[in-house]
Fold this sequence. Notes:
The complex is a heterodimer.
Chain A: H1 8-11, E1 23-28, E2 36-41, E3 44-49, E4 53-56, E5 59-61, E6 65-70, E7 74-77, H2 83-91, H3 115-129, E8 132-134, H4 138-145, H5 164-177, E9 206-218, E10 225-238, E11 243-246, E12 266-267, E13 271-273, H6 277-284
Parallel strand pairs in A: 4-9, 9-12
Antiparallel strand pairs in A: 1-2, 2-7, 3-6, 4-5, 7-13, 8-13, 9-10, 10-11
Chain B: H1 4-20, H2 30-34, E1 38-40, E2 62-75, E3 82-88, E4 97-100, E5 104-111, E6 122-123, E7 142-149, E8 154-159, H3 166-171, E9 176-182, E10 187-188, E11 194-195, E12 199-208, H4 224-236, E13 242-245, E14 258-261, E15 265-272, E16 279-282, E17 286-290, E18 300-303, E19 312-319, E20 324-330, H5 333-338, E21 342-348
Parallel strand pairs in B: 1-2, 2-5, 4-9, 12-15, 14-21
Antiparallel strand pairs in B: 2-3, 5-7, 6-8, 8-9, 10-11, 12-13, 15-19, 16-20, 17-18, 17-19, 20-21
The complex binds copper (II) ion.
Amino acid sequence: xxxxxxxxxxxxxxxxxxxxxxxxxxxxxxxxxxxxxxxxxxxxxxxxxxxxxxxxxxxxxxxxxxxxxxxxxxxxxxxxxxxxxxxxxxxxxxxxxxxxxxxxxxxxxxxxxxxxxxxxxxxxxxxxxxxxxxxxxxxxxxxxxxxxxxxxxxxxxxxxxxxxxxxxxxxxxxxxxxxxxxxxxxxxxxxxxxxxxxxxxxxxxxxxxxxxxxxxxxxxxxxxxxxxxxxxxxxxxxxxxxxxxxxxxxxxxxxxxxxxxxxxxxxxxxxxxxxxxxxxxxxxxxxx
Amino acid sequence: xxxxxxxxxxxxxxxxxxxxxxxxxxxxxxxxxxxxxxxxxxxxxxxxxxxxxxxxxxxxxxxxxxxxxxxxxxxxxxxxxxxxxxxxxxxxxxxxxxxxxxxxxxxxxxxxxxxxxxxxxxxxxxxxxxxxxxxxxxxxxxxxxxxxxxxxxxxxxxxxxxxxxxxxxxxxxxxxxxxxxxxxxxxxxxxxxxxxxxxxxxxxxxxxxxxxxxxxxxxxxxxxxxxxxxxxxxxxxxxxxxxxxxxxxxxxxxxxxxxxxxxxxxxxxxxxxxxxxxxxxxxxxxxxxxxxxxxxxxxxxxxxxxxxxxxxxxxxxxxxxxxxxxxxxxxxxxxxxxxxxxxxxxxxxxxxxxxxxxxxxxxxxxxx
Lengths: 288, 368
Ligand SMILES: [Cu+2]
């Protein structure tokens, strides 16, 4: 993460002329026999809590909420990558089999996949389709998930003289959320569609993002960042709450949240980066 | 209504409890602590222990330690089986730290950028914050300094505890060690009389869980993370593939056998951060054994085998009376012989015929 993230506050919204939430459904993956549903989101902005951990004067701070601008349209898979999608990658030798022993429907999201597995799939799928597919960044995911984005636990106290306040209040906040484990993945679409027309956000499958865990020390005078250390061996997952997991972990139940209940399952969806038709249309319209 | 005997007993227990409780230190200010003298300790690799006084010569101080976490492949048996180890200061177990009661332990923990995982440290000797684990989690490229007051005497385990499934995996990958908090006036026997040791050795026992391939051969992995899924499966079976002292089969035998002389008193500190064990000195004893490791309890006398609970460290004091080679084992002999938990002492000196002698050498069985 760069030192410039906090500066973005002032420039955010500068180009937010397009109403957020307008989306265009499309079908991509042209070299694939089985096309994947993709939704294009128009540029917009979000205000969301930055991922990672923040310190000031050596003490944990709440995650700063920043307004972030997404200035390009986002082409994102409408559904998570499915068991069937992923099996094709395994069959062609591009992916390791998922660490999944349960009987999961073929059209359910693939689970038991690590960050490394998700990236292997993105590489293979890019090759297979001739497009560039990648994991969304945490902020892209938050933008796409819209009202389904949960982020950090709220109501966590930071008492400079008593570090235990933070542990007690975050534990309590998590207990109060009363999230029941919901282990078995369901057929795609089971968790409904959000306001952007995308399916299954924040169901029982948490999604890998390309955002590294980062610990940031805020300047004592509050004007910026004193230092930050990335740990790209750990990536951010999003779902019913934010989670941080080592890249090689594929089993959500085995933990990884800073607080509280571990994710039920780990899966992913991808974003397509290309100067495709949608971007061309937007640039003709002068939006980008 | 209680009897006079109960009342006396109750009073005695009350007094003992007060004596054993750490002093309530809310009145100690940061300034008081800052004013304490400091001592910097250079840690050494087990089975050796950094120089220290058995009886404290001064009042409490701040004892500074630095440990660097090293993730590295290590060979754990004679067949070249590889473990993607995680270590405190490069050794399995991590170094034994020695302080006195009421000293402040100030540890700087360094996780170099070249590592790939986040780590922390949970001291069983410390109070609060998950033993310090809640205040010490560091990423590669970070360091952290923790101070805690050594309020209770004894030998205590420390280990990595970076959350969830990472905890057992880091511990059985080598991230554990022990700290010894000595009473300021040194160790005492069951009669309350001072006892001293001439030598001290630290033995950290590890249980390893190395996955095998289809042919039954041990697998090796590029990195710790690559082996994670497979190792967790073996761990869940609860049957270790290796049970070893100091990181490797044979790390305390042959050239590395521990040395002592007849008449010398040796303190053997033994930790097991994960799994129960039962040390036994073949041909010797435990003269005084702090089986649970806590010096506020009188030591047990004359033990043959003692029990170290998983997640604890104990110690045994023994004065060698005969020369020879002694095997110090985990007396689950399958673990000792087949899985590796054997160490040796080479003891020089004069044989004591009174204690043992071969009255008659082997010969054919006498008829009639
Ligand atoms: Cu660790």
